[in-house]
């Protein structure tokens, strides 16, 4: 068993990398590796896979060998390690023989902690290579982008197959395989091909909560894009377009409008592409307009927006591209411009010559992309369900969830629709059923169907409203649709429950659509942030590394927000590990001190409370005097409105006070909120999954419910489910 306690691992994370908390499954993955278990870690791009082997590498006695396919990324990773004072190095074909010899010698001497190797550097006759590795006495093997070993994956690289004998040569050395590829066939394949022994497998959620998803109608797309960029002029972003010509066109127009933009596509020569990418990494270009060729090799953490000028050809690609935004965890936007015309164009591309099977798959995937664009519901839920993850129908951070919502009881309309499907023998598509419901006089409607009771029963709704209903019923699985060209609507078990009145149909309607939010005014000192960025750029230039390798944007924002004035204060800033503090701390402190003096500002570091240590059980909420005062009055039999009046506070505030005592079990909610009302709130909490935020629930429930009641119900709900 490993001798590292969670506390020790937290300390190591802070010391080497300057981070306060582990993300997702980082901690259990690291524990697994340090226990010498073979480990498969599946995490979305940008979630922080590297730490999963870099931290163990620092704690294990010998060297960690990292196999990684992308030469550009390799250099970046090693630069990031060096910036943290960790001796990492790489071996790949971009280096001279001399350079490689020097690194190998250093590794033999035991000086290198992490050695990155490109798979093509492993000779086909791998014996000599494994002999060489044996001399280095490795403690751990990390196989990055492990899906490359699988022909199921989207990026098969035959060189990876040379790793199949790794475990034979080093049965006792643990292997960690890492990938962002979700699909289960690929996972299984990785385990088999690498011959992992009783591997521990960790799958993290693919959700990227800091990305806000928007779909906008493609009208004056260029103008919309330009407006957006102008409002976010300090931000970096990527615009994806389908054709090379349009990347050049858009970049040119942006450039004329004074935006530092460049284009990138596969038609350019490699040197030129490298130059553009490098300049973007270094923030010399703010915006890159690119075909999908751009992105594989890019590891820029502060991309604030990804805009799709054209529709993507499938959801996988779209999600991967949007995933290049916000890798630093800060709020970012993903905006897609949708037009049906794009779908028509893509349909032509979907046809693979002489391969009807492949064509059918591509068409189906395009259909699902179109469904995403036209989806009337939470975008994130759609995306997560697409990747096989259950997700509540409300995320609070997409165009749909940010619009004002209204819950509608659609039970009766749903029953009308289902009954029309049933009475016509489940043999028709949506168009026919809707015409029938609306009593169309068209000859297409069979005479016998015009005699049905359901004929014309749905005149009160417009055609589009019925189309929306059909979509909602499909999406909520109240009906099924055949996959053939007729797309016939079919009933299922859930349909019958609804028809028999055993279940209700509640739909969430959107009242208005919102545009991506304007940049929020964060409470940091803007000029100071500029100065700090300036210093960072100077250091980056001196050291020939990208600026974010020195410190990430969010670290600079924290500096400009909390104004640390001493080395001790600096320790509280995320991303400032001990090495970076000793190397760069003085320079940044100098600028902050000077700024604070000029503007007569005190340090605000005390506002940055150290994160509470994780407890096994949630702590009892602490109770303040004002809450106690409310409780005393309430116990004396004073009604809530009276308490509010006496204390000069709002009813909702008083209810909020009482919520604390519901949470700790001192009060019984049933004595405060009527049963039916409570059930109603709880059902919305359940369906939205919002157990903390009251606003989304309030939006759905409307004026008959107070914030205080919602808060109380949430406390009750959490308590009864913990
Ligand atoms: P990927 O999973 O795509 O390989 P990386 O390992 O490159 O992601 O990490 C993405 C970014 O997140 C990096 O800038 C990294 O330093 C940062 N990061 C990783 N773990 C943490 C953490 N626990 N706290 C804060 N930032 C982290
Ligand atoms: Zn949402």
The structural class is alpha/beta
Helix content: 40-55%
CATH architecture of the largest domain: 3-Layer(aba) Sandwich
User: Please, what is the average pLDDT?
Assistant: 87
CATH topology of the largest domain: Rossmann fold
How would you sum up the global shape? globular
- Read across the widest sheet, the strand sequence of neighbours is 3-4-2-5-6-1-7
CATH homologous superfamily name of the largest domain? P-loop containing nucleotide triphosphate hydrolases
**DSSP strand content:** 5-15%
Count up the domains: 5
Q: What hetero molecules are bound to the protein chains?
A: adenosine-5'-diphosphate, zinc ion
CATH class of the largest domain: Alpha Beta
Low-confidence runs: 611-621
Q: What value does the Rg take, in angstroms?
A: 29 Å
How many strand units?
17
Main sheet attributes: strand count, strand direction, barrel closure: 7 strands, parallel
The CA-CA distance between the termini, in Å, is 31 Å
Number of helices: 32
Give a written overview of the molecule.
With 722 residues, the chain is α/β, with parallel strands linked by helices. The chain has five domains: 6-203, P-loop containing nucleotide triphosphate hydrolases (Rossmann fold); 211-403, P-loop containing nucleotide triphosphate hydrolases (Rossmann fold), CATH 3.40.50; 408-511, Arc Repressor Mutant, subunit A (Orthogonal Bundle), CATH 1.10.10; 526-607, DNA polymerase, domain 1 (Orthogonal Bundle), CATH 1.10.150; 625-721, no CATH class. The protein is built from 32 helices and 17 strands. Helix 13 packs antiparallel against helix 14 (356-374) and helix 17 packs across helix 21 (493-499). The chain starts with 5 loop residues before the first helix and ends with a helix. The model is unreliable at 611-621 (pLDDT under 50). Adenosine-5'-diphosphate is lined by residues 19, 21-23, 26, 43, 45-51, 301, 327, 552.
């Amino acid at each position: 068993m490993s001798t590292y306690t969670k506390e020790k691992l937290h300390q190591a994370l802070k010391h080497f990398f300057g981070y306060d908390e582990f993300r997702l499954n980082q901690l259990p993955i690291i524990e697994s590796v340090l226990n010498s278990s073979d480990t498969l870690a599946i995490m979305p791009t940008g979630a922080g896979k590297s730490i999963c082997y870099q931290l163990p590498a620092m704690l294990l006695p010998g060297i960690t060998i990292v196999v990684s396919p992308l030469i550009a990324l390799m250099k970046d990773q090693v630069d990031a390690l060096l910036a943290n004072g960790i001796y990492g190095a790489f071996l790949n074909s971009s280096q001279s023989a001399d350079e490689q010899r020097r690194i190998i010698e250093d590794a033999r001497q035991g000086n290198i902690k992490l050695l990155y190797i490109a798979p093509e550097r492993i000779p086909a006759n791998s014996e000599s290579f494994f002999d060489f590795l044996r001399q280095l006495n490795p403690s751990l093997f990390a196989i990055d982008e492990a899906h490359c070993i699988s022909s199921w994956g989207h990026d098969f690289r035959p060189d990876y197959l040379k790793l199949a004998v790794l475990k034979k040569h080093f049965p006792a050395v643990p292997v960690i395989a890492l990938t962002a590829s979700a699909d289960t066939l690929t996972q299984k394949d990785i385990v088999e091909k690498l011959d992992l022994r009783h591997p521990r497998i960790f799958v993290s959620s693919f959700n990227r909560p800091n990305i806000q998803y928007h779909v906008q109608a493609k009208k004056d797309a260029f103008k919309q894009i330009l407006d957006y960029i102008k409002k976010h002029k300090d931000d970096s972003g990527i615009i994806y377009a389908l054709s090379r010509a349009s990347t050049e066109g858009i970049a040119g127009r942006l450039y004329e409008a004074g935006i530092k933009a460049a284009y990138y596509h596969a038609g350019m020569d490699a040197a030129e592409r490298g130059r553009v990418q490098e300049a973007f990494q270094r923030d010399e270009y703010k915006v890159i307009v690119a075909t999908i060729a751009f992105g594989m090799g890019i590891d820029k953490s502060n991309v604030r927006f990804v805009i799709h000028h054209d529709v993507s050809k499938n959801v996988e690609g779209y999600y991967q591209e949007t995933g290049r935004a916000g890798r630093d965890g800060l709020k970012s936007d993903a905006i897609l411009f949708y037009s049906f015309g794009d779908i028509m164009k893509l349909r032509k591309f979907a046809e693979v010559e002489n391969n009807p099977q492949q064509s059918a798959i591509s068409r189906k995937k395009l259909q699902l992309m179109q469904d995403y664009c036209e989806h009337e519901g939470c975008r994130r839920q759609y995306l997560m369900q697409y990747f096989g993850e259950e997700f509540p129908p409300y995320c609070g951070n997409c165009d749909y969830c940010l619009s004002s919502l209204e819950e509608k009881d659609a039970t009766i309309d749903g029953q009308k629709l289902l009954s029309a499907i049933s009475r016509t023998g489940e043999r028709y598509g949506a168009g026919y059923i809707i015409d029938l419901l609306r009593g169309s006089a068209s000859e297409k409607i069979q005479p016998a169907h015009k005699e049905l009771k359901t004929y014309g029963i749905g005149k009160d709704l417009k055609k589009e409203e019925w189309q929306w209903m059909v979509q909602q019923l499909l999406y909520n699985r109240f009906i099924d649709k055949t996959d053939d060209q007729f797309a016939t609507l079919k009933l299922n078990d859930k349909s019958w429950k609804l028809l028999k009145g055993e279940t209700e149909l509640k739909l969430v309607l959107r009242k208005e659509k919102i545009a991506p939010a304007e940049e929020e005014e964060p409470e940091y000192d803007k000029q100071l942030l500029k100065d700090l960025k300036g210093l960072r750029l100077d250091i980056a230039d001196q050291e020939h590394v990208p600026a974010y390798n020195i410190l990430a944007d969010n670290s600079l924002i924290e500096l400009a927000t909390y104004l640390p004035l001493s080395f001790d204060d600096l320790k509280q800033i995320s991303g400032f590990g001990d090495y970076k503090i000793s190397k760069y701390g003085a320079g940044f402190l100098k600028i902050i001190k000077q700024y604070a003096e000029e503007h007569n500002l005190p340090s605000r570091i005390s506002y940055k409370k150290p994160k509470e240590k994780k407890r096994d059980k949630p702590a009892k909420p602490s109770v303040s005097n004002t809450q106690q005062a409310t409780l005393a009055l309430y116990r004396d039999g004073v009604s809530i409105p009276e308490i509010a009046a006496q204390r000069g506070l709002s009813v909702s505030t008083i209810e909020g006070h009482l919520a604390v005592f519901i949470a700790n079990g001192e009060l019984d909610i049933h004595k405060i909120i009527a049963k039916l009302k409570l059930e109603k709130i709880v059902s919305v909490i359940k369906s939205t999954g919002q157990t903390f935020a009251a606003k989304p629930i309030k939006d759905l429930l409307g004026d008959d419910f107070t914030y205080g009641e919602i808060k109380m119900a949430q406390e009750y709900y959490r308590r009864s489910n913990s």
